Amino acid sequence: MTERIGVYVCHCGSNIASVVDVASLAEKAKTWPQVVISRDYKYMCSDPGQEYIKKDIEEYGLSRVVVAACSPRMHESTFRRALEKAGLNGYLLEMANIREHCSWVTTDKQLATQKALNLTRAAVKRVVYHQPIVEREVSVNPATLVVGGGISGIQAALQVAEAGHLVYLVEKEAYIGGHMAQFDKTFPTLDCAACILTPKMVQVGDHPNITLLTSSEVTAVEGYVGNFTVTVREKPRYINPVECTGCGDCVAACVLKDTIPTDFDLGLSKRGAAYIPFPQAVPLRAVIDDKHCLLLNRKKCSMECVKACQRRAINFAQKDKYHTIQVGTIILATGYELFDAAKAPQYGFGRYDNVINGLQFERMTNASGPTQGKIVMKNGEEPKRVAILHCIGSRDANYQRYCSRVCCMSSVKFAHMVKDHTNAEVYEFYIDMRTFGKQYEEFYNRVLEEGVNFIRGKGAEVTKVDGQLVVRAEDTLLGAFREIPVDMVILNTALVPRHDAEHVAQVFGISRSADGFFLESHIKLDPVTTTTDGIYLAGCCQSPKDIPDSVAQGSAAAAQSLSVIATGKVKISPITASVNKELCAGCRICVGLCPFRSIQIDKATGRASINEAVCKGCGTCAAACPSGAITVLHFNDEQILAQIEGVLA
Ligand SMILES: Cc1cc2nc3c(=O)[nH]c(=O)nc-3n(C[C@H](O)[C@H](O)[C@H](O)COP(=O)(O)OP(=O)(O)OC[C@H]3O[C@@H](n4cnc5c(N)ncnc54)[C@H](O)[C@@H]3O)c2cc1C
Ligand code: SF4
Ligand code: SF4
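^ thats the input. predicted complex w/ flavin-adenine dinucleotide below
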């Protein structure tokens, strides 16, 4: 088999060329069998770079192309398009990653050049065995699933719905709003959170294009971009949502009233088993908490709620409902959790009264919260001295190494709120003050002028001396160790991935980064797409961020979804696995291993059979099959062996 191969070595500016001798690599490539042209160029991905490839394909009659450049994740599609424009099938291309694998991992020019040579030679050997492949095109279901009804999910859902398409918004809790619904004011403008969030929540509840499923979770996702089939489990609310008017009579009548610590108020208030967490809740319907309800748990209760409900809306016979939904795209907006400050026992959270976390403080300052907006200690008195500690569990090698981005600003907000609501002296302990956003520095300066004591040094410990809370910290500006007695401590804790993030990632077939948040395709250039086509990310499930950034990302995810819907068709990768029925022994090993559940045993033949529409071509099955019956297109044995031979030659 004689091929005519062109080799193109990229400098990537100085990224590659400052370490790898690109000119000698291109020269050497000319001597390899079947290579008819070889060039090096400053930026192969630029228009002139691609132009070289197109022209050479025509002039030299190239039948295969090798590009030695950056990661194929970055530019494989760019070069495939260049080949296609010149009339060559885009899969007759192979890339050698001489940037991430060579110049970026060593400063040793000789070693880097030798490795680049080996990888490029391997690509040349491999490309000979490439076959033309045709991409499949499938039609797109124009409906979108949004998972998570916090501010980012709400934004994404409204935007897709406003564009005229159906949206299913699935929220785990009985109400939408996420963490923003717990706040009173939001930095940097001190907008009332409810004033800006409630209209959006109401719009979601009323929108003709949005089907809102609360108390619901996605249990299974099958299919592929354009055609996902999603199973949603809706837990019973034990209230008929059509009859319930949200009057609250059942809430007042429940025999467990004021006995169960609330999640929404983070234990600062108590509720009954029938409850409505906040007055602006959407949907404004009561819910009965099956973990505590006496009737549901012990089958014994006088059922005062049922007697109180004039609408006869309470229905204890409700069971789990399963919905099957067909959508083309999915937006995940499942948000974050707060780091459990008790895991850092030096701060006394959970041990000492009046040591609270940021969300508890948010509830305290909220007019509809447990203290009707008053900042008070457990004994009901106003504190005279309050300490706010930054970075609890963030920027700390013992817990989370990353910066949680919003805590400097929310700490500054807390300081302002304490000053605004009380006469207390405020001490704020920080490592750095990170006020990077629009109007953030101005807000910080404003609070500085309000007379807050900013102490540069991380709070090291909170102790109790003779019944008095004492914060110990090193003041790095004074160069002195300080012990400050206070009445209340607010721990501004890290934003962390939700406890069930791994389970959610598995259900949707996406990955997580080392810090546990969902992984985006490219941290800078593709922050809302995942490596699973058609599944996008919005808000804090991707990384900690503030409300402006969560809203912007919600819109960006909606735009990605709409761009798929607008074309009506989507190309899906033709790189899939297939089974040679003659060789398959029907051992089922592949069935259990396939992460995308795309393999079944054909009942008639007893052999494995792969659903190509679902298969992602990851190759797990092919690597595991003891009979060698499975092949993955574009990654067959000949291709891989030729590549290995090229590296070792
Ligand atoms: C103490 C504190 C104060 C803050 N103050 C401000 C401020 O003043 N200004 C500001 O800009 N930012 C502030 N922030 C940041 C703000 O909270 C976030 O930017 C914002 O809440 C992110 O929204 P989200 O929709 O991504 O996530 P979330 O608000 O966490 O919402 C996620 C939603 O998804 C739901 N969900 C989770 N898992 C599932 C699942 N598997 N299925 C279905 N639903 C699911 C959750 O129940 C929730 O409703 C503050 C943060 C903290 C901790
Ligand atoms: S269930 Fe009945 S009593 Fe309870 S809020 Fe709804 S209408 Fe009112
Ligand atoms: S390559 Fe195999 S294991 Fe991977 S998705 Fe396809 S069938 Fe499943």
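The chain has five domains: 5-128, 144-235+320-335+497-569, 249-308, 337-496, 577-632.
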